[in-house]
C-alpha cells in the first residue's frame, strides 16, 4: 500500500493579501495576540475558564423573600413531625406544605429561592434547613421550584 504523501503549504501562503485577511478574521473573532486557539477563554473576554461559579457571580444576588413567606417556609421546614404520625407520613406532609407554599411564589421569587438553595450559604437559615431534607425530597422540591414558568403558562390558558 502506498502511504499518502503529506500535503505541504503552498508558497503563496505568506502573501500580503492572505496575511491581511488573517488579521481581519482575528479582529472579528477577538483573538488575543499570541493565543494558541480561537477557543481560548481570553478570546471571549474571560480571564480564566468559564465555570458555573463564575456565571453565578456575574448574575445578581438572590433577593430575599417577603418576611411572612420566608417565615412560613422556615416553619414548614423546621416543624417537628406530629406525635403518632409516622416518619414517612410526616415528611410527605411537610413536602406537600412546602410545595403549596412554593406554588404561591412569583416566577422571580421561585428562581431566587432556588438559587439560594443551590448556593446553600452557611449564614442562610432557610437554605440550611432545606439542605437537611432527604435528597429525594430536596430534588423533587427543587424541580418544583424550577418548573414555575411552565406552571404559570399552563395556568394562564
Question: What would the keywords be for this entry?
Answer:
2 domains; elongated; mainly alpha; 157 residues; 57% helix; 8 helices
Shape: elongated
Instruction: Give the integer mean of the pLDDT values.
Output: 76
The Cα radius of gyration reads 27 Å
Strand tally, please? 0
Order of helices and strands: HHHHHHHH
Descriptive notes:
The chain is mostly helical. It folds into 2 domains: 15-53, no CATH class; 67-155, no CATH class. Helices cover 57% and strands 0% of the residues. It contains 8 helices and no strands. The protein has helices spanning 16-29, 52-58, 67-78, 87-103, 107-119, 125-131, 135-146, 148-155. The chain is elongated, with a radius of gyration of 27 Å.
Question: How do you describe this structure in short?
Answer:
The chain is mainly α.
List the helices and strands and how they pair.
Layout: H1 16-29, H2 52-58, H3 67-78, H4 87-103, H5 107-119, H6 125-131, H7 135-146, H8 148-155
